[in-house]
């Protein structure tokens, strides 16, 4: 038995398990690893996948099993040739040949923020991603025997019939129980909670404080981590943050508040480092400076778990795509009524609501083409999630399957039942952790998100629309669930200051550097893939505020790809401790 950083290794008569992350409970990683080894080792059908954030290699006398939990927070890759797996790692980069890149992967990556985690492709030929919930079985010599999606646990088997007639109060009780379990599973030896002063992060920190305050842990085992802004728009969050800290410490007086000065942080700070060193190109690398500063403070505390409030927006809020379900099932009068209520509650027009949640999911690619035609004057105007950005060369896109990738991505995001696909996609959109995982190998702790816990998502899936849809009151179920704990000022706030100022400041500060990065990129694939001058025009337009969040995301992902490819052209030394799981399977 051994624990080293992020890895737990256990052995028994059944075999040996190497687990990155935690299974069942973060507090007892050894017991979870033993349980996983025994469960998968039993003969019979595909094992149920326990709740947790983990990637695992299980070695038995007659086979080798590679697997990840269904939410896939921790990556796992294998190198394969001729049907034989020769190495396994949490890093695709350390397995890959920099001279053999998979061009189709880059088209898939460029279709949108969700493209990477649910696709088996990686940037390197011969290196494959194990998907969330997937179990890969090998012979003891590494020969591929099969790949199957593992069955989930009982938490996902909630029957919708039990929710018939459920209203807000009952839904809140169900969510509270699920969240308490999710937080309890994630409490470690030294737990840090990120606190922003919003409803989501404050809820998680309060539940952790109550858990530890009741004697199920020691008060000194909890720290409260926050980024503080003394000037600008985000300074308006400070009073909420202070009130949240005060209330949390009332439940756990020994909890340590750690305020990190982030006033000088801007998006795209040291972008070439954050984007270029990542394991894969990562669309959210522009935001890495802020999170890296917080992660550095958490590492100094010696924490092993950092809990966040990520995921609450799509998971515990009302699902607007139920309007599509009403239209699809012919309930047009009810759809119109609810569309009007949704429009009034979000201060939008009914036409916009119907377009976004009924028409666009039905014909996503056609809707984007129409929108692009209306906004033809700029590079960013009208650019949505799937249409080819004008800086991606048409020849490269045609040669390497960009249209097919766009179709596949739109089907994943919306699917035959968009209201269900929305929740599946939220897992990847709400907490894109590729950059955080790259940092985790250095800092030695896990980033974990209770709102993305399988029990929480299953609970929200089981709730009827009547229990979650309350016009003008976002995240009504969460507010009801936490009514006795959240300070009224935080519980009742309708909006939170976004990080738009950090993004705008970053573009003003680093726009010229980003353009120079594109023009001076050394990797030949950059010029083959992109019309660099058109991409530079997009950066200039974004500096002026042209476009919207979707079009900026498309630009950000392309810039991250340029920096990543440039990093391959001049490879840096491998980071200490990487890869976490690696070695021959023979």
TrEMBL record:
Record's InterPro entries?
Asn_synthase, Ntn_hydrolases_N, Rossmann-like_a/b/a_fold
Q: Which GO terms describe its molecular function?
A: asparagine synthase (glutamine-hydrolyzing) activity
Question: What is the protein named?
Answer: Asparagine synthase
Which Pfam families has this protein been placed in? Asn_synthase (PF00733)
Q: What organism does the UniProt record list as the source?
A: Streptomyces lavendulae subsp. lavendulae
* Alphabetized SUPFAM superfamilies for the sequence: Adenine nucleotide alpha hydrolases-like, N-terminal nucleophile aminohydrolases (Ntn hydrolases)
- Enumerate the Gene Ontology biological process terms: asparagine biosynthetic process
All copies of domain Asparagine synthetase, residue ranges? 175-565
């Amino acid at each position: 038995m051994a624990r080293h950083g992020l890895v737990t290794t256990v052995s028994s008569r059944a075999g040996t398990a190497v687990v990155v992350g935690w299974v069942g409970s973060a507090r007892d990683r050894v017991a979870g690893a033993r349980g996983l080894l025994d469960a998968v080792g039993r003969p019979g059908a595909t094992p149920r996948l326990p709740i947790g954030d983990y990637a695992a290699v299980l070695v038995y006398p007659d086979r080798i099993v590679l697997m990840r939990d269904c939410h896939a927070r921790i990556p796992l890759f294998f190198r394969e040739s001729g049907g034989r797996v020769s190495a396994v790692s949490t890093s695709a980069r350390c397995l890959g040949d920099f001279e053999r890149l998979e061009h189709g992967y880059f088209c898939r990556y460029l279709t949108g923020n969700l493209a990477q985690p649910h696709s088996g492709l990686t940037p390197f030929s011969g290196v494959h991603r194990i998907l969330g919930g997937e179990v890969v079985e090998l012979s003891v010599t590494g020969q591929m025997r099969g790949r199957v999606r593992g069955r989930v646990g009982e938490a996902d088997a909630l029957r919708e019939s039990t929710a018939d007639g459920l209203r807000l109060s009952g839904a809140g009780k169900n969510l509270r129980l699920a969240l308490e379990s999710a937080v309890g599973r994630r409490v470690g030896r030294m737990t840090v909670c990120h606190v922003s002063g919003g409803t989501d992060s404050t809820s998680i920190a309060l539940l952790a404080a109550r858990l530890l305050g009741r004697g199920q842990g020691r008060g000194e085992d909890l720290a409260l981590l926050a980024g503080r802004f003394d000037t600008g728009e985000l300074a308006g969050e400070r009073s909420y943050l202070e009130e949240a800290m005060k209330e949390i410490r009332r439940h756990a007086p020994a909890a340590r508040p750690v305020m990190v000065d982030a006033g000088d942080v801007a998006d795209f700070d040291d972008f070439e480092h954050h984007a270029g060193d990542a394991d894969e190109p990562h669309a959210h690398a522009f935001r890495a400076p802020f999170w890296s500063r917080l992660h550095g403070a958490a590492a100094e505390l010696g924490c092993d778990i950092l809990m966040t409030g990520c995921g609450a927006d799509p998971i515990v809020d009302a699902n607007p795509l139920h309007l599509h379900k009403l239209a699809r099932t012919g309930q047009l009068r009810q759809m119109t009524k609810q569309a009007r209520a949704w429009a009034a509650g979000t201060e939008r027009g009914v036409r916009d609501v119907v377009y976004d949640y009924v028409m666009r999911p039905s014909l996503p690619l056609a809707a984007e083409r129409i929108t692009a035609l209306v906004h033809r004057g700029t590079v960013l105007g009208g650019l949505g999630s799937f249409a080819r950005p004008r800086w991606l060369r048409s020849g490269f896109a045609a040669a390497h399957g960009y249209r097919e990738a766009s179709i596949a991505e739109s089907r994943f995001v919306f699917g035959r039942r968009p209201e269900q696909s929305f929740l599946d996609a939220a897992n990847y959109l709400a907490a894109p952790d590729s950059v955080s995982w790259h940092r985790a190998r250095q800092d030695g702790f896990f980033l974990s998100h209770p709102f993305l816990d399988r029990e929480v998502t299953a609970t929200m899936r089981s709730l009827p629309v009547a229990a979650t849809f309350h016009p003008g009151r976002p995240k009504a179920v969460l507010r009801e669930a936490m009514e006795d704990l959240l300070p009224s000022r935080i519980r009742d706030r309708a909006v939170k200051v976004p990080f738009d100022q950090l993004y705008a400041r970053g573009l003003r500060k680093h726009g010229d550097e980003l353009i120079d990065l594109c023009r001076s990129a050394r990797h030949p694939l950059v010029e083959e893939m992109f019309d660099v001058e058109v991409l530079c025009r997009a950066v200039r337009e974004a500096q002026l505020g042209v476009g919207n969040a979707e079009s900026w995301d498309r630009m950000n992902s392309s810039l991250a790809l340029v920096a990543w490819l440039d990093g391959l052209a001049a490879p840096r030394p491998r980071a200490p401790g990487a890869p976490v799981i690696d070695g021959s399977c023979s």
